[in-house]
């Protein structure tokens, strides 16, 4: 069995809505979980005009700003792929980490496959909400970031900036993972 060293990468996206192939990923932020100063951030041009007002309001982004300032999806995904390739040591595996990872991974996977041709994360992601549920035995309802914050007391907060949120998620992951390790020792 190939047991390669895993490099956890916290990834966050901001989108125009929840439907992967119809709504646009407008920003993408990522950082190494254990070295958050190793980071990546980009804005993307929209792939459609479809949007949900609440999704845009949360981010403060507009389709016009993204169209003006963003990279095309192929350019953005190539840059993200190159960042991963340039920063992951040889022989290591990048692991996608997200808070509600199915949502963020869905967009990243779609964009990688459609606009780049492959996804360096493969076909799975590590979900912080599920990790927290396993670590604490809480209910699914109690895996909201506000509930997690009350247990692990992170220094950072989410603010819907993709890179800031990736760094916040990285801190949550480290704190929750420490909970898991401490419970194994007891």
TrEMBL record:
The keyword Nuclease applies. Keywords: Exonuclease, Hydrolase, Nuclease. SUPFAM superfamilies: Ribonuclease H-like. It comes from the Bacteria. Residues 7-182 form the Exonuclease domain. GO terms for cellular component: cytosol. One of its GO terms (molecular function) is nucleic acid binding. It holds the Pfam family RNase_T. Coiled coil: none annotated. The keyword Hydrolase applies. InterPro entries: Ribonucl_H, RNaseH-like_sf, RNaseH_sf. GO terms for biological process: DNA replication proofreading. This is 3'-5' exonuclease. It comes from Shewanella septentrionalis.
């Amino acid at each position: 069995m190939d047991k390669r060293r895993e490099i956890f990468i916290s990834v966050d996206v901001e989108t125009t809505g929840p439907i992967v192939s119809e709504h646009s990923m407008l920003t993408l932020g990522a950082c190494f979980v254990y070295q958050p100063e190793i980071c990546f951030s980009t804005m993307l041009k929209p792939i459609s005009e479809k949007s949900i007002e609440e999704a845009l309001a949360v981010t403060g982004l507009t389709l016009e700003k993204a169209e003006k300032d963003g990279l095309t999806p192929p350019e953005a995904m190539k840059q993200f792929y190159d960042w991963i390739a340039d920063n992951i040591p040889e022989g290591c595996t990048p692991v996608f980490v997200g808070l509600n990872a199915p949502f963020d991974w869905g967009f990243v996977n779609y964009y990688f496959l459609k606009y780049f041709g492959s996804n360096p994360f493969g076909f799975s992601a590590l979900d912080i909400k599920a990790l927290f549920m396993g670590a604490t035995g809480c209910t699914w309802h109690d895996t909201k970031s506000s509930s997690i914050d009350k247990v692990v007391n992170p220094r950072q907060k989410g603010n819907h900036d993709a890179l800031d949120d990736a760094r916040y998620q990285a801190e949550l992951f480290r704190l929750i993972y420490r909970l898991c390790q401490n419970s194994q020792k007891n």
